[in-house]
Amino acid sequence: MKPEVAIAILYQHQTFLLQLRDNIPNIAYPGHWGLFGGHLDPGETPEVAVVRELQEEICYVAPDLVKFGIYEDDRATRHVFAAPLTVDVSELKLMEGWDLGLFTIAEIQQGERFSDRANQIRPLGAIHQRILLDFINAKG
């Protein structure tokens, strides 16, 4: 059975918050930019998991989380939620991952971005790019 994960599109104006995943070979998309979130604990709903993951990863409680969709591939079933980012990025506390940052639509389309902490350009995970582009297109 494929793992189930809950991830969040956090947006602020025309930008989107992404996490640079740790560069550890045994995780999905190591060293790639991706959406915040993670695996569902046994018996946990996606709605509960996404709230927990955001608190664990960036100490953020997202208002008005709305289910955007489900994305399934050979790696995982991803429950995708969306919510506004209502605080400045400097107020977030990165507890998991290598870096974080707000991406412009052009950067999402380009599929890569420089990380100050990694001191290099890192790619955006393909599934995360697809989800974000779908969201941007759906919202016009």
From TrEMBL:
Instruction: Quote one Gene Ontology molecular function term.
Output: hydrolase activity, acting on acid anhydrides, in phosphorus-containing anhydrides
Transmembrane portions of the chain = none
* Domain Nudix hydrolase stretches: 1-127
Q: What is the lineage of its organism?
A: Bacteria, Bacillati, Cyanobacteriota, Cyanophyceae, Leptolyngbyales
Keyword annotations of the record: Hydrolase, Magnesium, Metal-binding
Q: Which SUPFAM superfamilies match?
A: Nudix
What is the top-level taxon of the source organism? Bacteria
Q: Which family does it belong to?
A: Belongs to the Nudix hydrolase family.
Which protein are we looking at?
Answer: NUDIX hydrolase
Q: Name one GO cellular component term.
A: cytoplasm
Q: Which cofactor does it need?
A: Mg(2+)
Origin species: Leptolyngbya boryana NIES-2135
